[in-house]
Amino acid sequence: MRSIKQIKKDLKGRKVLVRVDFNVPINNGVILDDFRIRKSLTTIKFLIDSGASVILITHLGKDGSESLEPIIKRFFKISKFPKTKISFFDNIRKFDGEIKNDLVFAKELSKLGDIYVNDAFSVSHRVHSSIVSLPKYLPSYAGFQLEEEIKNLSKVIKNVKHPFLYIAGGAKFSTKLPLLKKYLKLADNIFIGGALSNSFLKVKGYEVGKSLVDKDNHDIKKIINNKKIILPIDVFVKSSNKFLIKKIDQIGKEEDIIDIGKNTIDDLAKIIKSSKMILWNGPLGEYESGGEKATKKIMNILFDQKNKEIIIGGGDLVSCIPKSIVGKLKSNMFVSTGGGATLDFLVNGTLPGIKALG
To answer: Does residue 337 lie within any of the structural domains?
Structure first.
């Protein structure tokens, strides 16, 4: 995989197609989180400072029907880049050939530029035309953010430091199971929170009320008694119109678990402080329903840690990072831009979009 650093002297006057992922959360035309946009700026600045003109390719939404206008407006507001040097291709998923990975579409797309750069780690697990086929028709390189993702995520595959703690949260059990199985071998401790822990607690025989659980138990019984696995000892529940902290053996049939409890947070904090490497993927509670407190407390605890390698998975977890520490992350703390791409990379050690640059 070649870096854009290698062609700095050859960029003057060249047109560069840059695949970015600006598929950010938007509500009524207002961007709620521009983390991914900001992470692309270093690569784009390097290209225009080297004399290139840039055409940015991104998708927004699933079917390509959404306008890129809010994205374009925010991009130029935060970047201050000259509009004469940068243009946006239309929402790439607007074209049937993108998701179908159509070679004819990729070839036509390639005619717009002289060089291709992938800086969209978060969609590099997709076998789409702008990710895996466009590199067939142009000299292709990795952007700085893509390189950073590979460098940092590879640490928890090839350079594990012990004691190693893996924190697994979120709701999609089927996507987390391969990681759980992998890190049962690599990690010293695995803490399970979020809706994942509801499924574990239910299999262990605890009442979880109306809490979100996976319909399929995914053979949890095979791993549930592993000594590395740590489950909550108390939880924050919604009971009628009240919010209460309860021990895991006190949950009622009409109650809903929305977060982990104070004693569980304290126990997890102790494990964090005794660990040398921490990998965290997925929120510890239903952050959209008032269950974001534990996630933010643990994030602040991690922010205060020194001499530890800390890797934060992207996706929903990024939106839970407290505003007080956004933009102030220390060198030992890396936050991935990926969601599903991060999970796939951690399991497989590569992605289709990375292979396409080889």
So the answer is: no
Residue 189, class by beta-carbon neighbours within 10 Å (0-12 exposed, 13-18 middle, 19+ buried)? buried
Q: What share of the chain in percent tops pLDDT 90?
A: 85
Same domain (yes/no): 122, 174:
no
Q: Which helix (H) or strand (E) holds 75?
A: helix 69-79
CA geometry: angle at 146 spanning 145 and 148, to 5°?
60
Q: Using CA atoms, how far apart are residues 160 and 157, in angstroms rounded to an integer?
A: 6
Residue 219's pLDDT band, with cuts at 50, 70 and 90, is confident
Kindly state the DSSP code that residue 323 receives in the 8-state scheme.
Answer: T
Residue 84 domain boundaries: 4-145
- Within this chain, do residues 125 and 247 fall inside the same structural domain, yes or no? no
Q: What tokens appear for 348 in the block?
A: 């497989």
Task: Write the CB contacts of 131 (distance below 8 Å, at least 6 apart in sequence).
Answer: 19, 118, 120, 123, 124, 352, 353, 356
**Cis ω before 25 (30° cut-off from 0):** no
Q: Are residues 175 and 317 in the same domain?
A: yes
pTM for the predicted model, two decimal places: 0.93
Name the token pair of 271.
């494990």
Q: What does the pLDDT look like over 78-137, one tens digit per residue? A: 999 999 999 999 999 999 999 999 999 999 999 999 999 999 999 999 999 999 999 999
Strand order in the sheet with 140-142: 86-88, 53-57, 15-19, 115-118, 140-142
Query: What pLDDT is stored for residue 102 in this prediction?
Result: 98
Last residue of a domain, one of 102, 123, 145: 145
b/e 124-146 (16+ beta carbons within 10 angstroms → b): bbbebbbbbbbbebbebbbbbbb
Instruction: Tell me what pLDDT residue 218 has.
Output: 67
CA 153 to chain centre: 11
The Cβ of residue 181 has, within 10 Å, a number of other Cβ atoms equal to: 13
Candidates 152, 92, 146; CA nearest to 121 is 146
Tally the domains of the chain.
2
User: What local confidence, expressed as pLDDT, does residue 217 receive?
Assistant: 66
**Claim to verify: residue 168 and residue 292 sit in the same structural domain:** yes
Q: Is the pLDDT of residue 327 over 90?
A: no
